[in-house]
Design a protein that fits this description.
alpha/beta, 811 residues
Length: 811
């Protein structure tokens, strides 16, 4: 390739104005309109028009630069002739230019108004031997470009006609490059190739690459079109097949989906409202395309409507003796629950359609709340379904989602009824006290309608949008505590299930747990024998619970170890478990059975507390140290218990002289009250008696009897008020081998519910005033301070007539 100076006919002295272009490359022999708006570019056009209409067109390296410098434009461009120039109203200029020849910028000249440069034309020297080769290459490029035009719909076919009239290879290569969809850098690279043969070779590579891309796109379009045609064809053939089957009479034997739904709507026994709704939705479905998304939503809705048991019922057993026998077979004790079920069955014999009772079984874990629900279902011949409410936050879990939501479903009430298939099952609402409220709604409020006998005959699920009668359902709820919203609690009949006594646990283990675990672990009755004393030791030393769940785990552990020894073949065919062999199978004893303290202690009292897991012993400690009257309270005590301590201190101050305590003790001594097991929060007023006794003992230095436990709320006058959970507290005292228990006098009436063997083993003393408590609990009563006549004068009237309370006798 050689370079020559631009002749005089183009520029006066090989110098011409330069026009930078954005996003376009102009080739020789190419005619193109340009819109010019930049001041420097307009000035360059004016200079070119004033001379010989010649201008150098060069591409910018970066199209976003408004005022490109000499280093921001390419140095090789095209010398072009201005054919036409038109000024537009908005100040821009439309100019029509024709490329003449390639040129290289030798140097840019200083000019503030516009770009000027000294240029040299680029020419390609071709020998006669090369002309034949160029002719062949030009023909090859033309053929490839024809294929490219056929595949690329963006290029008009008329371009091929114009190419037929071009003989020069260089002109042909530039014209083809101008019509190809190339990136700006690729177009500039083609412009900079001065050698015609290399330029044609490069075009062959570019066209072949573009052809590969276009052929892949064509194949993809064809594949998509084929799939669409296939689905349309299948739909058409299915419709034809239906028409043929109808003509042959086969379709009547195999009814279509709409006919099936119509038949179900007639048969399921819907209410008038539900039937009208289902028919309306079915008519909509008939008008829809089976493949549409809306048709699927409507079809699912109708399926749910016909799937709900509108009239199907299970026959409820009315035989009271049989029901009572089943309840006794399945559970030991739980007399109140069994009595309530028998009452319901008795009423059912007299009343044709009694309202289903809504029971709430409240008790600690492991006492059989869930399993009694299954037994009630078996005793009444109802089908059983269960819904766990633990952790439910969303109201839609109860009432369902509205159909406007994608993937909406009915609530769990309707879902479970559809699953069980009858409208009068026993519906167990497990862990009803574990429901919670958040931004999605309050499920406890949604349960109000479900559990109200006056409202649940018109229960409305958001998904079904029609009323459903729940009055035939027997609802049984379970809870560990009464931490249930008051309106919901008011709709249920609460039956408390207290913890089991030691004798009850022993009987449950013998009757139910051991046979169940023998069967579960593949043992025969004659292969394992557990003595009653071993069972009693398991209850005392390996479990501490109100129920029997951990006891069953310990029995299961023994069974597994026995199975292992029998399978390994240690020569024994029968294993007997005694108290002595328990350590071998269950390890060391986990709990102490007996008193927390064997000796009488100053300032330490054994209280009784109620928890969700049953009754517990509550140790209360008080220590008096020299100080300025500060009171410390530790052991994670909540507000009510801290207030009980304040009341206890006031009671002690009001009786200080009569109890042998210096009246000014609150000014010279600090009192620290601590309730051990500090990681556990403690609350409630029933420790008031224990707090008072501990403070009196610490201040008077008189020990408290270790075999005495007490419970009761105290007033400022020293009166003992009644408490709850008496049975659980007495069971805890019995487990710990406490001998004497002080209870509020108003709780004496509750002793009728306490098992006889518990009352026989405990000396239960009802008390009404704190003075009675101190007479029993302290090792000896402290000597009053000062003149006895003065002390007697300030004593409360009730204390003057107190006689030691007599223990309650078990009858």
């Amino acid at each position: 390739m050689s370079e020559k100076q631009v002749p005089d006919k183009l520029t006066d002295d090989a110098i011409m104005p330069v026009l930078p272009l954005r996003d376009v490359v102009v080739y020789p022999h190419m005619v193109i309109p340009l819109f010019v708006g930049r001041e420097k570019s307009i000035k360059a056009l004016d200079v070119a028009m004033a001379s010989n209409k010649q201008i150098l067109l060069v591409a910018q390296k970066n199209a976003e630069v408004d005022e490109p410098g000499t280093d921001q434009v390419h140095t090789i461009g095209t010398v072009s002739t201005i054919l036409q120039l038109l000024k537009l109203p908005d100040g821009t200029i439309k100019v029509l230019v024709e490329g003449v020849d390639r040129a290289r910028v030798m140097r840019f000249l200083d000019e503030e108004d516009y770009l000027r440069a000294s240029v040299s034309l680029l020419e390609s020297d071709t020998s006669p031997e090369d002309e034949r080769e160029l002719e062949v290459m030009a023909r090859s490029v033309t053929n490839l470009f024809e294929q490219y035009v056929k595949l690329n719909k963006k290029i008009p076919p008329e371009v091929l006609t114009s190419l037929a009239g071009i003989d020069e290879p260089t002109h042909l290569a530039d014209t083809i490059a101008a019509h190809m969809s190339l990136k700006l850098d690729e177009k500039q690279y083609v412009l900079e190739i001065g050698d015609v043969r290399k330029r044609l070779e490069h075009l062959v590579k570019l066209i072949e690459g573009e052809l590969d891309v276009l052929q892949i796109e064509k194949r993809l379009r064809g594949r998509v079109k084929q799939q669409m045609e296939k689905s349309q064809r299948e739909y058409y053939l299915n419709e034809q097949m239906k028409a043929i089957q109808k003509e042959l009479g086969e379709l009547e034997e195999a009814p279509n989906e709409v006919d099936e739904l119509t038949e179900k709507i007639e048969k399921v026994g819907m209410s008038k409202e539900a039937k009208k709704k289902a028919t309306t939705e079915l008519n909509k479905l008939k008008m829809m395309s089976p493949m549409s998304a809306e048709a699927t939503v409507v079809r699912n809705y109708i399926d749910w409507l016909v799937g709900v048991p509108w009239k199907k019922k299970s026959k409820v057993r009315k035989d009271l003796a049989a029901a009572e026998r089943i309840l006794e077979e399945d559970h030991y004790g739980l007399h109140k629950v069994k009595e309530r079920i028998i009452e319901y069955l008795a009423v059912q014999q007299r009343v044709r359609k009694p309202k289903g009772p809504i029971l709430c079984l409240v008790g600690p874990p492991g006492v059989g709340k869930t399993s009694i629900g299954k037994s009630i279902a078996r005793a009444t011949s109802r089908k059983f379904t269960r819904m766990s409410l633990g952790g439910v936050h969303d109201e839609a879990e109860i009432r369902g989602h509205r159909r406007t939501y994608i993937g909406s479903l009915p609530g769990k009430i309707v879902q479970n009824l559809s699953k069980v298939g009858v409208r009068n099952p026993l519906f167990l609402l497990d862990e009803i006290d574990k429901m919670a409220m958040d931004f999605r709604g309050d499920p406890a409020s949604a349960m109000l309608e479900v559990l109200d006998p006056e409202q649940n005959h018109t229960f409305n699920d958001h998904y079904l949008e029609v009323d459903f009668d729940l009055s035939d359902v027997m609802f049984v709820a379970t809870a560990n505590s009464l931490n249930i919203p008051s309106p919901l609690l008011d709709r249920m009949e609460v039956i408390r299930l207290p913890g089991y006594t030691e004798d009850e646990k022993k009987n449950i283990a013998i009757r139910y747990l051991i046979p169940k675990q023998l069967k579960a672990n593949g043992l025969k009755k004659n292969e394992l024998q557990i003595s009653e004393s071993a069972i009693r030791d398991m209850i005392r030393y390996y479990t501490r619970e109100a129920g029997v769940r951990n006891l069953e785990r310990e029995i299961s552990k023994i069974c597994r170890k026995v199975v292992k020894s029998l399978v390994l073949g240690d020569g024994r065919k029968k294993v007997s478990i005694t108290p002595r062999s328990l350590v071998k199978y269950l390890g060391v004893k986990l709990f102490r059975y007996g008193l927390a303290e064997d000796n009488d202690q100053v300032g330490q009292v054994t209280g009784l507390a109620w928890t969700e897991t049953g009754g517990e012993l509550l140790t209360i400690e008080a220590v008096v140290i020299p100080g300025k009257g500060k009171t410390s309270r530790t052991g994670q005590l909540e507000d009510v218990m801290q207030e009980s301590i304040q009341v206890a201190q006031t009671v002690v101050r009001s009786r200080a002289s009569g109890l042998g305590i210096q009246p000014d003790f609150y000014e010279k001594s600090d009192i620290h009250i601590h309730v051990p097991e500090g990681a556990v929060k403690k609350d409630g007023p029933s420790a008031g008696v224990g707090m008072t006794t501990a403070i009196v003992s610490a201040l008077s230095k008189v020990a408290v009897r270790a075999d005495v436990a007490m419970t009761g709320e105290i007033t400022l006058r020293g009166e003992i008020l009644p408490i709850g959970g008496l049975k659980e507290k007495l069971l805890a005292a019995h487990r710990a081998e406490i001998k004497t228990v002080l209870i509020p006098k108003d709780n004496e009436k509750d002793l009728s519910e306490i098992p006889k063997n518990i009352k026989q083993k405990l000396e239960i003393i009802p008390v009404q005033w704190i003075d009675e408590v101190l007479q029993v609990a302290l090792v000896n009563m402290p000597e009053p301070l000062g003149d006895p006549e003065v002390v007697a004068a300030v004593e409360p009237e009730h204390k003057k007539s107190i006689q030691k309370s007599e223990p309650v006798q078990a009858h």
